[in-house]
Amino acid sequence: ANRIVVKVGTSSLIHPNGAVNLETFDQLAYTLSTLNNQGKQLILVSSGAMGVGLNKMHLKKRPEEIGAQQALSAIGQSELMTLFTQRFNHYLTDIAQVLLTHDIFDYPKSNRSVMDTFNCLLKDNVIPIVNENDTVATDELDHKTTFGDNDQLSAIVASHMNADLLIVLSDIDGFYNHNPHKFADAKMIPTVSNITNDTFTVAGGTGSRFGTGGMQTKLLAAKRMLDENRQMVLANGKDPRIILDILAGRQVGTWFSK
Ligand code: ADP
């Protein structure tokens, strides 16, 4: 794979107690810098703005109103990029912030302008770090919709930027035949080549405290990748160096591949 989109979930970036997981930030910067130096083109889609914002404002849980959540995301987004800038600077890698909405590729003019931006950044070996623009869109914040979230945003980006591979890092080793947090005997499925309605029924409920999408949105992303003959790997982001194992073709995580 030469063009790779990596999506990292809130659960990888924020400890369960709400503190920022600085080690993950560092290992992610190390791993992506290494790959960037090898000539791979990388796009990072990072959640975590709200988690970082909550931490910054010493809050334990998300506020009720969407407006207050958007405000926290705005606070957290700049803090999130500060954390990434620090760690990527350490490995001498340039990064850029790209804030998108899910529908941005639907309009020819904005589509062209987003593609131009990505292409220029990638040509110059700069790693774009993408997040949903929570100030103007509430898709990721709105629990009622499964349409908007960074899992699917990462698939949209992978699709339009013609990436071969989407790597989704979460708090879980892969896709299981039951939610492993509810069923002790759940087993991980190493490869999935076809996603049906039955696949969706075993991906129940939303996940972590700060995470949003749960497994449903990851499956929707995987389905899109499969439909377009791309690959997706779902793996545990607790140590992002797992990306190196994935690219070495080792059997880690769940591979969604035809
Ligand atoms: P992130 O913040 O990384 O996007 P989420 O918490 O949104 O992560 O989604 C991952 C969670 O999905 C898992 O921790 C697990 O609780 C839940 N889940 C539900 N069904 C499954 C399944 N079949 N296999 C794996 N995880 C599942």
Short synopsis of the structure:
The chain is an alpha/beta fold. The protein has helices at 10-13, 22-37, 49-56, 66-90, 108-123, 150-160, 197-201, 214-227, 242-247, and strands at 3-8, 41-46, 95-100, 127-132, 165-170, 191-192, 231-236, 254-256. Residues 143-148 and 205-212 have low confidence and may be disordered.
Give the count of helical stretches: 9
Shape: globular
- In total, the number of strands is 8
**Element-level helix/strand string:** EHHEHHEHEHEEHHEHE
Helix content: 40-55%
Q: Give the bound compounds.
A: adenosine-5'-diphosphate
Tell me about the biggest sheet?
8 strands, mixed
**Uncertain stretches of 5 or more adjacent residues:** 143-148, 205-212
What's the end-to-end separation, in Å?
15 Å
Task: Kindly name the structural category.
Answer: alpha/beta
Rg, alpha carbons: 17 Å
Give the SSE map.
Layout: E1 3-8, H1 10-13, H2 22-37, E2 41-46, H3 49-56, H4 66-90, E3 95-100, H5 108-123, E4 127-132, H6 150-160, E5 165-170, E6 191-192, H7 197-201, H8 214-227, E7 231-236, H9 242-247, E8 254-256
Parallel strand pairs: 1-2, 1-5, 2-4, 3-4, 5-7, 6-8
Antiparallel strand pairs: 7-8
Helix pairs in contact: 2-4, 3-4, 6-8
How would you portray this structure in words?
There is one protein chain. This protein is an alpha/beta fold and 258 residues long. Helix content is 41%, strand content 16%. The chain has 9 helices and 8 strands. It has an 8-stranded mixed β-sheet with strand order 3-4-2-1-5-7-8-6, with helices on both faces. Helix 5 links the parallel strand 3 and strand 4 (127-132). Helix 2 (22-37) packs across helix 4 and helix 3 crosses helix 4 (66-90). The longest helix is centred in the N-terminal third of the chain and has 25 residues, at 66-90. The radius of gyration is 17 Å and the shape is globular. The two termini are 15 Å apart. Mean pLDDT is 91; it is low at 143-148 and 205-212. The protein binds adenosine-5'-diphosphate (ADP). The site of adenosine-5'-diphosphate has 23 residues, from helix 1 and helix 8.
